[in-house]
Amino acid sequence: MMRVLITGITGFVGSHLADHLLQIPGVNVYGMARWRSRTENIEHIKDKIRLFECDIRDASSVKSVIKEVNPEKIFHLAAQSFVPSSWNAPAETLFTNIIGELNILEAIRQMEINPVIHLAGSSEEYGMAYENEVPIKETNPLRPLSPYGVSKVAQDLLGYQYYKSYGLNIIRTRAFNHTGPRRGEVFVCSDFAKQIAEIEKELKKPVLHVGNLEAKRDFSDVRDIVRAYWLATERCTPGEVYNICSGTSYAIKEILDILLSYAKVSIKVVQDPARMRPSDVPVLGGDSTKFREKTGWKSEIPFEQTLKDTIDYWREKVKVPVEWRKT
Ligand code: A2R
Ligand code: GDD
């Protein structure tokens, strides 16, 4: 059996990746989680995986888990992943994302083991891409516009350096936006879908708050993305970097309109200045030719389906408090 370790297994992508790996014969899934991590995303598979307590900021804790698991593959997903929080807590974001990854790479280097390591980079690394650079290739300059974007550039380059300096088996990907059920409630599609679900249940006035609707993002379904991550570790070349995206971009306004078309009630949209960012990447549209040619991957789930599944997830999750229910 292949031992596969997922950092950030309780998160959005980590939990979907665990679901995917459990379908692959011959794979044992191990995960790192903090003692107070919310485990609702992996509740349904808890008896099929092994969890280890670990904060990636703590080098000794990282080392002892990696020693115990002795993984043949590592998917490093744990991160401070929300862009706005990186302005509110830049040092924490840089520390978690950069030093957290350093702790993992150092543990592997010092133990002299050589697992395949997948590093989850981001389209936010490209940041300020100009219209004539879209769709963005891996060779595009990196001009991150947030501390989060900077942290992802550092993760990416640290991976490159550890590959070059020590020959670690590192595969770097830059995923563009992805969403679906279990997406954290602060991210745009989940946020809008959750607000709609609350409005439908009369838990909130019929007013939906939004931020910048002009930004354009290249969206995929998370279930397509985790399939891509596995293929990356099977077929991609260590040291190289690969874009992963559907190649279809949507203005956030278009996403809002699709979600509103699923709403069962009429809803007013109001822009909330608090939801605007100090700088927002205007357009992110990717070119994943390099990855597709290497792996044969393509996205399969239509985005409308992803949004339907996301809103249904929130309809199921948003509950009317017992004391509010009419008898
Ligand atoms: O915060 P927690 O305890 O619920 O766990 C989150 C984990 N995480 C950490 N794990 C160990 N030590 C830490 N210091 C630490 N900080 C965060 O990372 C959670 O399990 C995961 C993040 O999940 P999400 O916020 O749902 O992010 P998502 O979308 O799954 O992102 C996965 C990767 C990240 O590297 C992003 O930067 C990239 O994809 O886009
Ligand atoms: N969150 C949020 N809330 N975003 C909004 C809102 C809102 O009310 N209104 C508009 N937006 C816009 C943001 O300004 C941004 O342009 C876009 O919607 C997407 O925002 P998020 O869903 O928060 O995601 P992100 O693009 O900042 O970052 C996500 O994708 C990256 C690339 O894959 C995260 O998953 C990152 O971890 C990931 O690296």
Task: Give a verbal description of the structure.
It is a single chain. The chain is α/β, with parallel strands linked by helices and 327 residues long. It has two domains: 2-179 and 219-244, Rossmann fold; 188-217 and 248-284 and 301-324, UDP-galactose 4-epimerase, domain 1 (Alpha-Beta Complex), CATH 3.90.25.10. The protein has ten helices and 14 strands. The chain has helices at 12-22, 59-69, 83-88, 90-111, 147-166, 188-200, 222-235, 252-262, 289-295, 303-317; strands spanning 2-7, 27-33, 50-53, 73-76, 116-122, 169-175, 178-179, 207-210, 216-218, 220-221, 241-244, 249-251, 268-271, 283-284. The strands form four sheets. Strands 3-2-1-4-5-6-11 form a seven-stranded parallel beta sheet, sandwiched between helices. α6 crosses α10 (303-317) and α8 packs across α10. The chain is globular and about 60 Å long. Ligand A2R binds next to α1, α4 and β5.
Can you count the beta strands? 14
Separation of the first and last Cα atoms: 54 Å
**Secondary-structure element order, as H and E?**
EHEEHEHHEHEEHEEEHEEHEEHH
- Which ligands accompany this protein? ligand A2R, guanosine-5'-diphosphate-alpha-D-mannose
CATH evolutionary superfamily of the largest domain: NAD(P)-binding Rossmann-like Domain
Task: Estimate the strand proportion.
Answer: 15-25%
Mean pLDDT: 97
CATH architecture of the largest domain: 3-Layer(aba) Sandwich
Helix/sheet category: alpha/beta
- Order of strands across the widest beta sheet? 3-2-1-4-5-6-11
SS field, number of helical segments: 10
CATH class of the largest domain: Alpha Beta
Fold-level CATH name of the largest domain: Rossmann fold
Approximate helicity band = 25-40%
Are there runs of 5+ residues with pLDDT below 50, and where? none
Number of domains: 2
